[in-house]
């Protein structure tokens, strides 16, 4: 008999690194979720852009169950058929010649940065080790990636931090140009800053970074952990922008809810990570490979990718209509189904309150800093669910405004 648990047990038993919602999700299907008391929620959070095909997709269930009946894990002393097939799918669909698999976005970015430094050292010597990143970025919570992230609130308590990492202003090419030089090994950038406020890069900015990297023999790394696997309406955002990186990190939606991450890169660069130079126990396991392969097969279709743009309009039209009535946001921005509603000055700092009020009304949303409400739903969410979820969201906003008046 299973032990009954409550939200209060989190506060008694868990390391207090999170402050989870007051309810405990119990089951979910598609874009709807139910808590332990049977209350229904429409999911606009998507597990932080992870559940790209919603919850409990039957084809993903089947892929997982079939693989679970065959082979779960062997370690990296062996390879397996599902992960090899997924590697080939990614190669065929992108610029990449080679793939390295891990378990998360942080691990993927860690591998990308390690590859960039090792390549620079081998090609040019140890003095070429600089990393240029951007303010308000987010690349993960390892010591290397949290330092690259450029949000001191996440890194200052863990000093001393890895050296030779500088931060420019996002979407400011002149700021980046002042930092990128002959000692720069790599530039790491999100095509859309997710945690930093859902801020899309200007196309000219990414083109300029590509040119600067080429000029100074530095590698360009795109962190597509949040923007990848269909989120922008292209399989990866670099395709939307027409700028090709040297290394791309991917995770989140690649597993549709099953933990997996990867870096994609070229034949030339991949040779740098020779045997023994990097590794992971769970990375590239058969279960992740089977689920990831099915996710990619289902998402990398014209009707799904084109449908993301349609759903973008459903959300932005709906949010703008809410704003016409309530005057809550100063901007609705983003690409595809990564959307941010930026609060105006009257409600500055209250994104978390809105997300809590939304949950009370039966809709799950995210925040991206204190001033941005973020939406990252399933790429195949229905129009009816969008309308119903936005109606619930509007009620939450009305309750907040009423409470503030």
From TrEMBL:
What Gene3D superfamilies does UniProt report for this protein, alphabetically? Aspartate Aminotransferase, domain 1, Type I PLP-dependent aspartate aminotransferase-like (Major domain)
Give the chief site where it resides: cytoplasm
Q: Which pathway does it operate in?
A: Amino-acid biosynthesis; L-arginine biosynthesis; N(2)-acetyl-L-ornithine from L-glutamate: step 4/4; Amino-acid biosynthesis; L-lysine biosynthesis via DAP pathway; LL-2,6-diaminopimelate from (S)-tetrahydrodipicolinate (succinylase route): step 2/3
Q: Which GO terms describe its cellular component?
A: cytoplasm
Which reactions does this protein catalyse? N-succinyl-(2S,6S)-2,6-diaminopimelate + 2-oxoglutarate = (S)-2-succinylamino-6-oxoheptanedioate + L-glutamate; N(2)-acetyl-L-ornithine + 2-oxoglutarate = N-acetyl-L-glutamate 5-semialdehyde + L-glutamate
For this UniProt entry, which segments traverse the membrane?
A: none
Cross-referenced CDD domains: OAT_like
Detail which positions bind N(2)-acetyl-L-ornithine.
141, 280
Enzyme Commission designation: 2.6.1.11, 2.6.1.17
Major enzyme class? transferase
Record note on cofactor: Binds 1 pyridoxal phosphate per subunit.
Q: Which GO terms describe its biological process?
A: L-arginine biosynthetic process; L-arginine catabolic process; lysine biosynthetic process via diaminopimelate
Keyword terms of this UniProt record: Amino-acid biosynthesis, Aminotransferase, Arginine biosynthesis, Cytoplasm, Lysine biosynthesis, Pyridoxal phosphate, Transferase
| Binding-site list for pyridoxal 5'-phosphate | 105-106, 138, 223-226, 281
Q: What is its cofactor?
A: pyridoxal 5'-phosphate
The Swiss-Prot or TrEMBL record annotates one GO molecular function as: succinyldiaminopimelate transaminase activity
Q: Which residues carry this modification: N6-(pyridoxal phosphate)lysine?
A: 252
Q: Where in the cell is it found?
A: Cytoplasm
Q: Which InterPro entries match?
A: Ac/SucOrn_transaminase_bac (IPR017652), AcOrn/SuccOrn_fam (IPR004636), Aminotrans_3 (IPR005814), Aminotrans_3_PPA_site (IPR049704), Class-III_PLP-dep_AT (IPR050103), PyrdxlP-dep_Trfase (IPR015424), PyrdxlP-dep_Trfase_major (IPR015421), PyrdxlP-dep_Trfase_small (IPR015422)
Q: How does it assemble?
A: Homodimer.
User: What family name appears in the similarity comment?
Assistant: Belongs to the class-III pyridoxal-phosphate-dependent aminotransferase family. ArgD subfamily.
Job description of the protein = Involved in both the arginine and lysine biosynthetic pathways.
Name of the protein this chain belongs to:
Acetylornithine/succinyldiaminopimelate aminotransferase
Q: Could you tell me which species this protein originates from?
A: Mixta tenebrionis
Gene of this entry = astC
């Amino acid at each position: 008999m299973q032990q009954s648990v409550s939200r209060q047990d989190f506060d008694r038993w868990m390391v207090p690194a999170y402050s989870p919602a007051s309810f405990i999700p119990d089951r979910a299907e598609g874009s709807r979720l139910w808590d332990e008391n049977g209350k229904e929620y429409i999911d606009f959070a998507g597990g932080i852009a992870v559940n790209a095909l919603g919850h409990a997709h039957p084809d993903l269930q089947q892929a997982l169950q079939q693989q679970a009946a065959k082979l779960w894990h062997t370690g990296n002393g062996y390879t397996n058929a599902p992960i090899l097939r997924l590697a080939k799918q990614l190669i065929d669909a992108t610029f990449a010649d080679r793939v390295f698999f891990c378990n998360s976005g942080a691990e993927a970015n860690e591998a990308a940065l390690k590859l960039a430094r090792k390549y620079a050292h081998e090609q040019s010597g140890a003095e070429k080790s600089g990393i240029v990143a951007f303010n308000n970025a987010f690349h993960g919570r390892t010591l290397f990636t949290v330092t690259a992230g450029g949000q001191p609130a996440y890194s200052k308590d863990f000093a001393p931090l890895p050296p030779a990492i500088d931060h420019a202003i996002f979407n400011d090419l002149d700021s980046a140009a002042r930092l990128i030089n002959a000692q720069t090994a790599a530039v790491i950038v999100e095509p859309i800053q997710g945690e930093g406020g859902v801020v899309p890069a200007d196309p000219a900015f990414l083109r300029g970074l590509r040119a600067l990297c080429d000029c100074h023999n530095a590698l360009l790394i795109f962190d597509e952990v949040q923007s990848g696997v269909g989120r922008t309406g292209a399989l990866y955002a670099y395709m939307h922008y027409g700028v090709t990186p040297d290394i791309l990190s991917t995770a989140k939606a690649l597993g549709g809810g099953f933990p997996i991450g990867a870096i994609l890169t070229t034949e030339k660069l991949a040779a740098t990570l020779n045997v023994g130079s990097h590794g992971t126990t769970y990375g590239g396991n058969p279960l992740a490979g089977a689920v990831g392969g099915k996710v990619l097969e289902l998402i990398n279709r014209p009707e799904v990718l084109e449908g993301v743009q349609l759903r973008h309009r459903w959300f932005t039209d709906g949010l703008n209509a809410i704003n016409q009535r309530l005057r809550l946001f100063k901007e609705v921005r983003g690409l595809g189904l990564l959307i941010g509603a930026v609060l105006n000055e009257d409600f500055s700092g209250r994104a978390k309150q809105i997300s809590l009020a939304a949950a009370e009304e039966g809709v799950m949303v995210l925040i991206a800093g204190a001033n941005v409400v973020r939406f990252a739903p399933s790429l195949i969410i229905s129009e009816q669910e969008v309308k119903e979820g936005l109606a619930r969201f509007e009620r939450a906003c009305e309750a907040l405004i009423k409470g503030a008046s």
